[in-house]
Amino acid sequence: MFRSFIGMGYADCITPPAIQRHLLENPGWYTAYTPYQAEIAQGRLEALLNFQTLIIELTGLEIANASLLDEGTAAAEAMAMSYGACKGEANRFFAAADCHPQTLEVLKTRANPLGIQLILGDPQSFEFDGSVFGALLQYPATDGRIGDYREFVQRAQAVGALVTVAADLLSLTLLVPPGEWGADIAVGSTQRFGVPLGYGGPHAAYFATRDRHKRQVPGRIVGVSQDAQGNRALRLALQTREQHIRREKATSNICTAQVLLAVVASTYAVYHGPQGLKRIAQRIQQLTAILAAGLQRLGYQLAHDCYFDTLRVLPGPLPAATLLERAEARRLNLRSLGEDIGISLDETTSLEDLQGLWQVFGDEELALNPAALAGEVDLAYSAALTRTSDYLRDPVFNRYHSENGTAALPAPA
Q: What's the mean pLDDT in 273-293?
């Protein structure tokens, strides 16, 4: 069996046994396509409402839908929504070249029939004008770089363009969320929230935006209402007209929401709570920093100093082709970035994995000490990138963190 360190928006994770047994292996959950009949789907609607709350609080935006197909599709929906919100003749959409490649391919496919001119480039040097209606950023970038995009957002919004951010959801427990630095839309995958890797997906995507755009949101939104007896009840409050139903009136071509996988992701957040999610993120960040320190000891340089779970390793003592061959011999999958190598860690990464990676890049008999290197790394992000706001404050995310509910953590003040 190969161990994958390719990244690109896919990360292995640990599915809690209770979620695996009672959701993924339970036909009461996995056979339902969509909760159209609210009167018999209150549990599923509640789990999707938790999903929306999870997305809203981690992204710092005001409204979220109940999942989409995958990250690339969600980014394309954001582009289409931005285009529809444009009141002028603008037809150009900017996408950062360091977005995930599969996302860029979906954008290209969607842009062509809509008459949208897709521009790929560097956010720092791109010049906005009235012909640009929207932009897409990856946060962190596909090669691990974490940028401060506040000035970019200001330039975009000055010409009326909407800014979409494809953000790694787990990283937002540590990084300032897009909504706090001005983004209009946030999209991404929730796969690493307890959903096993499934040969590339699809995995439940999220889509969040400002409240003023709620009528243009693709997919559907679960809302809180009352039943005939005045009790709290959940229902589909808003549902997009879908292309397969009324093509000429469609506001989206999405007819599939990964409901089961969205339920898994929301339940994973309930299971771990805000403190648990942050601990997982901090562990991944620390292992990545230890890996980076070891690689530098071996004579390699990194393309970026600020990262979360992904490193871009520049050419060093051994060329990329040799490193890929050595990794394959050890049954490790690394990402080829031309002359560079990409390495992404996840929740399942161990200290043994770090030793194996160091041996790929150095001597087969090498034995660096992770504990010693841990004392040398600095895990602090700059003030501009460090999250200070609370998240997942609702009692559902703070009450129970075990199968039997006996290990509850106190709710944050």
A: 97
CB 300 within 8 A of CB 317: yes
What is the distance between the alpha carbons of residues 291 and 356, in angstroms, rounded to a whole number? 11
SS3 209: strand
In whole angstroms, give the CA distance from residue 372 to residue 375.
6
Q: Quick one: tokens of 97?
A: 């070249």
Contacts of residue 270, Cβ cutoff 8 Å, sequence gap at least 6: 50, 396, 397, 400
pLDDT of residue 8: 95
- The answer to whether 146 touches 175, Cβ cutoff 8 Å, is yes
**Quick check: helix, strand or coil at residue 118?**
strand
Domain segments of the chain as ranges: 17-269, 274-374
**Is residue 403 very low, low, confident or very high in pLDDT (cuts 50, 70, 90)?**
low
Torsion angle (degrees, nearest 10) of CA 361, 366, 367, 370: -20
| 78 Cβ neighbours under 8 A, 6+ residues apart | 134, 136, 164, 185, 187, 207
Check whether domain 17-269 has CATH 3.40.640.10, yes or no? yes
CA 167 to chain CA centroid, nearest Å = 5
The H-assigned helical ranges of 62-169 are 71-85, 101-114, 150-158
Structure confidence at residue 412 (pLDDT): 34
- Give dist(CA 339, CA 329) in Å, integer: 19
Q: What is the mean pLDDT of the chain?
A: 90
Q: Identify whether the C-beta of residue 64 lies closer than 8 Å to the C-beta of residue 52.
A: yes
Question: What is d(CA 33, CA 36) in angstroms, rounded to the nearest whole number?
Answer: 9
DSSP classification of residue 227: -
The one-character DSSP state at 401 is: -
Residue identified by tokens 């050419």 is: 315
Query: Which of 46-60, 107-121, 145-159, 228-242 bottoms out in mean pLDDT, i.e. has the lowest?
Result: 228-242
C-alpha 327, offset from chain centre: 27
163's enclosing H/E stretch is: strand 162-167
Contact assessment for residue 262 and residue 48, using Cβ atoms and an 8 Å cutoff:
yes
Q: Note the CATH number of domain 274-374.
A: 3.90.1150.10
Pairing outcome for strands 335-337 and 332-333: unpaired
Letter string b/e over residues 208-217, b meaning 16 or more CB atoms within 10 A of that residue's CB:
bbeeebeebb
Nearest of 377, 340, 332 to residue 359 by alpha carbon: 332
CA 191 – CA 197 distance, rounded (Å):
8
